[in-house]
Amino acid sequence: MTENLLLAFGLTAFAGLSTGIGSVLAFFTKTTNTRFLSLALGFSAGVMIYVSMIEIFFKAKESLVEELGAQQGYNLTVLAFFGGILFIGLIDYMIPSGENPHEVRKVEQLGNNKGGVKDIKLMKMGLFTALAIAIHNFPEGLATFMSALNDPALGVAIAMAIAIHNIPEGIAVSVPIYYATGNKKKAFWHSFLSGLSEPVGAIIGYLILMPFLSPLIFGILFAAVAGIMVFISLDELLPAAREYGKHHWSIYGMIAGMAIMAASLLLFA
Fold this sequence. Notes:
Elements (H helix, E strand, L loop, with lengths): L1 H16 L1 H10 L5 H35 L1 H25 L25 H31 L1 H30 L2 H11 L2 H13 L5 H29 L3 H21 L2
Helix pairs in contact: 1-5, 1-6, 1-8, 2-6, 2-7, 3-4, 3-6, 3-9, 3-10, 4-9, 5-6, 5-7, 5-8, 5-9, 6-7, 9-10
């Protein structure tokens, strides 16, 4: 149990702090590789949709059916699934659209700023984006942690998918902060720290929920996790992939993500 706990926390920290990778890409590349990002975001969506609908939802259902019986267990699984969607949807709704972390920004937007232009509006945008990401990533951290705790192999796949989707978020924080200040270190650390909410979400979830964790609570929570990840995929990952201008590549990536996730589940079943 202790080993699983450490692995789950480590995977959650890796997924969250990968916002720093996006920041580094913004500083050391001259142009955004839109084809790669479309493919990667689509791949991430495919992994998360497939694993949510095929694996996590049915594990939640098994747990709840065992506790409550076939009909009540299935009903509660569906309610918890849509409850997870409602939860992440409300968080998304409360974030102002101007500061939404899923507003696509490219490396090219760094421009030729070399003199550290002090632009208060841009700085505010970057800081609000960092805060929005921190709020938004909190339930993602809980989702990654709970999945890894229950099934380490599943946790690795989900952590990788969320890490990929956090890379553009890192760019979204870095671009305005660097352009406003000319300070790469400041832009990097704001981007990096915005991902800390994922491991924080994991710790808080663990401390609050673990004393009460029963098959019933686990089933409800796992079904909600499935809903959260489906919403993230449909509302954030696939639209972002399309905004990078490579629609077909995002779909190819999604199908590849589903296929690889299916193959891994078959191999480790």
